[in-house]
Structures are given as structure tokens and as C-alpha cells.
Amino acid sequence: MNNLFIQGLSIEWTKIRQDSYLRNIDAIKDINGLDFKKSVTFFVGENGSGKSTLLEALAVAYGFNPEGGTKNYSFSTYDSHSELCDAIRITKGFRRPKSGYFLRAESFYNVATKEKEYADSEHPSEKYHEKSHGESFLAIAQKYMRAEGIYIFDEPEAALSPQRQLTLLMDICKCAKHGAQFIIVTHSPILLGIPDAEIFSFDEGELHLCEYEETDSYIVTELFINNRNHLLHKLLGEV
Ligand SMILES: Nc1ncnc2c1ncn2[C@@H]1O[C@H](COP(=O)(O)OP(=O)(O)OP(=O)(O)O)[C@@H](O)[C@H]1O
């Protein structure tokens, strides 16, 4: 027993159509239950391996808007979320989060637009559209991240420089140390380095736990940096 807000999930496959594409995603199709044991959980894997599909379903089942934001955001510019959202059952802990945010790179523009619309004199807009992509992304993460919150992030590194990824890493560790929970899809070898995190890999079929050094993000980055000339020669030949 731990004190996480989201302790695990299960999928009711009877609620998913027989011809649904979800049944063809190798890492998802055999999931019955999944337990979270650490305050920081990562989903890693190749493009198209199903990370965002599972993360989005988890976020929506927990009460977040499919396109992101706080739990108070309620809008939809397009209805693209999968039937997995209705089939997921979340095991909740006994604590209630004091804050929360579902951050996703792909619909961040729409969330920033809504933030402006929702603003009033008591809650002035942060004018995210007037900041650079990376500046606004980090600003929004920092505005909502605090102790005892629940945070579901889909590729938060997408707009961030390596230095700002380190800033985000520090903020995540600080909040996690004080009771926050993070579930994060990432390709970033920097963020994945967060100590004592649990990493679920969506590669090689069934979803499984792996070590930092076993992730492609680490292996490919390490290989490239330490063997750049050799690797480029192999990849590009005499071109
Ligand atoms: N509406 C849909 N209809 C059919 N297939 C879909 C649909 N949405 C997603 N898929 C497929 O489901 C698979 C998983 O997609 P998902 O976005 O979860 O991948 P991902 O691991 O998050 O990838 P990335 O790292 O590129 O973000 C992909 O093969 C994708 O083409």
C-alpha cells in the first residue's frame, strides 16, 4: 500500500469493440492491470507504441479534459479521444490532490487560448501566446506544479531546451518529494534520469518495467555522443 493518488489502473476489455485499433497495440492489448508504486512514473517507447493513448485515457478517466489543462478546463476543439477512456478503471488512493494538470504538447496551443478566455480580473491571463513555446510551456508547468498535486504530462520536453529540461527535472523532484505524483510520457534522456522513478517500456510487445540504461532514449543518446563520428560514418557512408 502506498499513498499515491493514482495507485493503478485496469482495463475492462468487454467495453472495447472487437474491431478497435486498441486491440492491435501490442503494449496495450494484454494489459489487465497496472500498479504504480513510485511518485514519478515514466512511459517510454517507440513512436506509435501506445504511450499517449494510455496516458490520455488515464487522464480523462481521472477527470481531466482530453486536450489538457486543470480539472476545471472543459472544452473540445476536436473529439479524438479513444474508447479506452471509458474502459479504464483507476485505483485511487485515500488522499485527494490539492492541484493537478494534464499537460500535452500536441494541444498546448488550444489550452493556452482557453486560458485567455477563462481569465478575469481575479485570475488574469498569463498570456501564454505572447511567450515563446518553451517559455510558455515551462511557465504553465511551474504555475500549477506544487506539493501534493497530480500531474500527467505528455512529452513535456517537446519545447524545452536542455537547460530548461533540467529546471523541469528539479521542479518535478521537489514536488514529488513533498507528496506530488507524476505520470509522464517522455523521450527525454534528461527527464528519464530522475532518481527512483519507475519506467514502463512500451517496446517489445507487452508493457514491462525497465531500467534507465535500457531505454532507447539513453542508449541512442549515449551512442551518438560517445561515438558520433563512427556512427555518422556508418549512417551516412561517404555521402
Ligand atoms: N483514432 C485512431 N484510429 C486508429 N489508430 C489510431 C488512432 N489513434 C491512434 N492510433 C494508433 O495507435 C497507435 C498508438 O498511438 P499513440 O499516439 O498512443 O503512440 P505514442 O506511443 O504516443 O507515439 P509518439 O511517441 O509518436 O507520440 C499508433 O500506431 C497510432 O497510429
What does this structure look like?
It is a peripheral membrane protein. Residues 6-229 form the ABC transporter domain. It holds the Pfam family AAA_21. The protein has a single domain (6-211), classed as P-loop containing nucleotide triphosphate hydrolases (Rossmann fold, 3-Layer(aba) Sandwich). Helix content is 33%, strand content 18%. It contains eight helices and nine strands. The strands form two sheets. Strands 5-6-7-3-8-9 form a six-stranded mixed β-sheet, with helices on both faces. A three-stranded antiparallel β-sheet has the order 2-1-4. The structure holds adenosine-5'-triphosphate. Residues 21, 25, 45, 47-53 line the site of adenosine-5'-triphosphate (ATP). Adenosine-5'-triphosphate binds at residues 21, 25, 45, 47-53.
Strand and helix map with partners:
Elements: E1 6-11, H1 26-29, E2 33-35, E3 40-44, H2 51-62, H3 84-87, E4 88-92, E5 99-104, H4 108-118, H5 133-144, E6 149-154, H6 162-177, E7 181-185, E8 198-201, E9 208-210, H7 216-226, H8 228-236
Parallel strand pairs: 3-7, 3-8, 5-6, 6-7
Antiparallel strand pairs: 1-2, 1-4, 8-9
Helix pairs in contact: 7-8
Bound molecules: adenosine-5'-triphosphate.
Adenosine-5'-triphosphate (ATP) binds next to helix 2.
